[in-house]
Amino acid sequence: IKELEKTISPVRSYRLEGYLFPDTYEFYTDSSEVEVIRRFLSNFDRKFNEIYYDRAKELGLTVDEVIILASMIEKETKFLSEFEVVSSVFHNRLNNRINFPYLESDATIMYAIQIKTGERPNTLKETTFESPYNTYSNKGFPPGPIANPGYNAITCALYPSKTSYYYFVSRKDGTSIFSKTYNEHLAAIAEIKKEE
After folding, report:
1. What is the pTM of this model?
2. Would the CA dihedral through 84, 89, 93, 95 be positive or negative?
3. 36-52 pLDDT, tens digit each
4. What is the sign of the dihedral through the CA atoms of 7, 13, 16 and 22?
């Protein structure tokens, strides 16, 4: 929390989003909000160990950036088998910011829509929604996490697959097609439209 306080964006939606570690907890019925939050944060501290801090530093990322990235991975695909590859797409973009200044995550826009309307859309129809969380129109990371990522998403944010992918798009069944070039990506989108 001390590290977070130094860097937190004034337009972040929820201060502790991303750090309330999803797990099974047992609480007494008279537990206070402070006790509940402390348990969530303590569990996060146990899971995000020194090796993860060192790895974040090695990647040139803050802990908050790792958690933001993990939350995006968590929301971009429903298949654990794709987490590392989705992570690689975001890392490839982050490592090539001259050509790919935008992370272009649909999930960040869907989060912004949910914050504003109270409902998360099933699909994203356009990428022009005005919000600091729109990673199509704002460079780099959004102001904060868009979910409380689990252990697998955090691990994959720190240890992505090594790929040359810069794009992905989801099929109707939720699986993704990964592409190296924009033309391949357009072909993948056309292929998905044919399936509909």
Report:
1. 0.93
2. positive
3. 999 999 999 999 999 99
4. negative
